[in-house]
Design goal:
CATH architecture of the largest domain: 3-Layer(aba) Sandwich
Shape: globular
Low-confidence stretches: none
Strand content: 15-25%
Helix content: 10-25%
Largest sheet: 9 strands, mixed
CATH class of the largest domain: Alpha Beta
Oligomer: single chain
CATH topology of the largest domain: Alkaline Phosphatase, subunit A
Distance between the termini: 46 Å
Length: 533
């Protein structure tokens, strides 16, 4: 039976996770809830992130825009390491004025949007993005039981830091049962770190199962799309890099009209998630979005390529661009004079990285395990991921692959021309263009406009009216969104302004704030309106 009401959408995302799941054929994992979700819906085998690190990747997910296109490509923008005070940080990325968090489009259509609770977008989440944001955000908090919802849950235990010894004292997996990838040495310390990874995946799988049970308890499972994904991979030579171990992520979904037990090998990018949600909700996908819907009425033909980038991550600058089809990966090192191991203080805490450092200094790593310690990079890398899934053998100079190299080289150039590459701009210049004189711009406070039979006029403090009157909220900052609340609303609950407000009989206090992404939030404006009907 076709549902006549809007579908609900539930996202359950894991951090720093490749498809180390039973349903993806992993022989070690214990993921019964994820496996069940895959049986009830569709599993994508070729889903890839736009970056191998969280904040740039998540900025693409929430906006549908590539990080290099909107200036969210450096990681961390709030970075203040004492050894590198010269970096132009901290700052919040100022996005083009027409770019919004895609949840605003859902909210404007009546969806109750919640996030529990990770954001990490390279910019402060605007007040207008979520109805609820925080540890208690939940679809169960929506004011009307029939209101459609978009709810996000972000269990964080699978983060890279979960492989630190102090973050997992009780292993659920025997390290001896784990075989490390060929780029890593097979030592007890490496296996133990991966055992911690699997332990946290199993625990997160239980959290996902709990949320699915709540959905069933509420009688909402039949009309809810459930999506599971991850932002990028967890391991050295994966996280922070455009190798598949950095950008190959799980994607599983079930929902209305989706046949169970499907497996899709079509290329999907995580930048496509936002447009796909709008498509499933029956909303038009804005033309500026660079992602493309892969489900719903606005689904596009399958991709031929997915793209990824790497720039300054924490303390050290870099610039790498990559493109991949369903089989072949092309990587361009724009800074070939750099070693692969540029300094990254956070990475050095990873136990696998520490073990590899020790063995490298002792001269005990083999050729594959030494790849990360090369002091110079090739300008180009090319990998056949079908015959070489761990991307060990660079084929860029192999004459048998010259046509593949030329094709992917051209594909990367075409993408960069299409989306623009702000990585070509020094970060300091980019930030200076956003923050003139080093000062973050501030969004203008909203202005109240009274509209009635006599015309439209500013009413900054409100007023008394004897004829039917609308109140329009106006902001002089280009691209700003406006949130408002009535005096009867909870102090921390803000509505998204989408159309003029019709005054009701009596006196009404309206509070309003405005925000453009990357700007400071405006001062709060208040006005009291009396309609004596």
């Amino acid at each position: 039976m076709r549902h006549t009401r809007k579908p609900n959408i539930l996202w359950i995302s894991f951090e720093d996770t490749n498809p180390f799941y039973g349903c993806y054929g992993d022989p070690v994992a214990r993921t019964p809830h994820l496996d069940r979700l895959a049986k009830e819906g569709c599993l994508w085998t070729h889903c890839f992130s736009t970056a191998g690190v969280c904040a740039p990747a998540r900025s693409a997910i929430i906006t549908g825009m590539y990080p290099i296109s909107v200036g969210t490509h450096h990681m961390r923008t709030t970075h203040t390491h004492p050894a590198t005070p010269e970096l132009p940080t901290p700052y919040s990325a100022v996005l083009p004025h027409y770019v919004k968090c895609f949840t605003e489009y859902l909210r404007a259509d009546g969806y109750f949007c919640t996030n529990n609770e990770k954001t990490d977008y390279q910019f402060d989440p605007p007040l207008t993005a979520w109805d609820q944001l925080g540890p208690h955000a939940h679809w169960r908090n929506r004011p009307h039981p029939d209101q459609p919802f978009f709810a996000v849950f972000n269990p964080t235990r699978t983060h890279e830091s979960g492989m630190w010894p102090e973050k997992c004292l009780n292993l659920a997996f025997n390290p001896d049962d784990i075989t490390p990838p060929p780029a890593f040495p097979d030592t007890p310390k490496v296996r133990e770190a991966m055992a911690r990874m699997y332990t946290h995946i199993e625990e997160s799988d239980k959290e996902l199962g709990h949320l699915l049970h709540q959905l069933e308890e509420d009688g909402l499972a039949d009309n809810t799309y459930v999506f599971h994904w991850s932002d990028h991979g967890p391991l050295p030579r994966g996280k922070r890099w455009p190798y598949d171990s950095g950008i190959h992520v799980p994607l599983i979904a079930r929902g209305p009209y989706m046949a169970p037990g499907q497996t899709s090998d079509r290329l999907v990018s995580t930048i496509d998630l936002g447009p796909t949600m709008l498509s499933l909700a029956g909303l038009s996908v804005p033309h500026h979005m660079q992602g493309q819907a892969f489900l719903g009425d606005q689904a596009k033909p399958p991709r031929e390529y997915v793209y990824a980038s790497r720039d300054r991550y924490d303390e050290a600058y870099d610039m790498v661009r990559a493109v991949r089809d369903r089989r072949v990966k092309y990587i361009r090192n724009c800074r070939p004079e750099l070693p692969y191991m540029v300094w990254n203080n956070y990475l050095e805490r990873h136990p696998i990285m520490q073990e590899m450092r020790r063995l490298h200094l002792a001269g005990e790593l083999n050729e594959a395990q030494s790849l990360l310690f090369q002091t110079r990079r090739p300008v180009e890398e090319l990998y056949d991921t079908e015959t070489d899934p761990h991307e060990i053998r660079n084929l860029a100079t192999d004459p048998r692959y010259c046509s593949q190299l030329a094709r992917l080289r051209d594909a990367l150039d075409a993408w960069l021309r299409d989306v623009g590459d702000m990585g070509r701009i020094p970060e300091s210049e980019m930030v200076r263009s956003w923050y003139p004189d080093g000062v973050q711009p501030e969004t203008a406070a909203p202005l109240f406009i009274a509209i009635n039979a006599t015309g439209a006029a500013p009413a900054p403090e409100g007023g008394t009216y004897e004829t039917p009157t609308l109140v329009q909220l106006h902001c002089a900052t280009q691209g700003a969104s406006i949130a408002y609340a009535f005096d009867s609303d909870p102090a921390d609950q803000w509505r998204l302004y989408t159309e003029p407000l019709r005054l009701k009989s009596g006196t009404t206090l309206i509070r309003a704030r405005a925000i453009r992404i990357g700007y400071k939030e405006s001062e709060e404006a208040q006005a009291v309106f009396t309609y004596a009907s």
